[in-house]
Amino acid sequence: MATIIVQRPKLAWHERWFISTLAKGLKITLGHALKTFREITGGKAKVTMEYPEEKWDSNLPSYYRGAPALVTDEHDRERCVSCQLCEFICPPKAIKIIPSEIPSDDPWAKVEKRPKEFDIDMIRCIYCGMCEEVCPEQAIFLRKDYAITGESRAEMVHDKKKLYEIGGKRVGLVNKWNELK
Question: What is the pLDDT of residues 28-48, one digit of tens each?
Answer without folding.
Answer: 999 998 888 877 777 665 567
